[in-house]
């Protein structure tokens, strides 16, 4: 009977160990550097406050869909790595569940744009690098036009 318990215990450990593919879910370049800013309970408020627009991927390690867009999100992060218009970020909801709940994240991955520290728009659409880049570029262009129009209104009123 003891051998059977030991066998079962080893079997469970083997299954758990093999279920992890050993790959991180945070978007990192091949050099290991983050191309998407990892958010934590310690830095997320400041990052949202200090960036006009932040596009966040909320994910979990156990979600197959989160794993599926890992490389795609890495590509998006690399594309906007030097952008002053938008910051690409991500938060592991397995580690920071209360924060994810605060933003009403109930499924993974959830993709949300924040403006001036506040939830602004949830992305719902195709999930390819090209689709994300097109969406972000259009989003930024619309915002710039809106900002210019508001500046012009203020100048005309003066």
Automatic annotation (TrEMBL):
Q: Which UniProt keywords apply?
A: Signal
One GO cellular component from the entry? Answer: endoplasmic reticulum
Q: Which domain of life is it from?
A: Eukaryota
PROSITE patterns for this protein = THIOREDOXIN_2 (PS51352)
Q: Which GO terms describe its biological process?
A: protein folding
Which residues does UniProt assign to the signal peptide? Answer: 1-22
CDD domains (alphabetical): PDI_a_family
Question: What Pfam family does this protein match (any one)?
Answer: Thioredoxin
Identify the residues that the record assigns to the Thioredoxin domain, covering every copy. 17-141
Molecular function GO terms recorded: protein disulfide isomerase activity
Please state what the protein is called.
Thioredoxin domain-containing protein
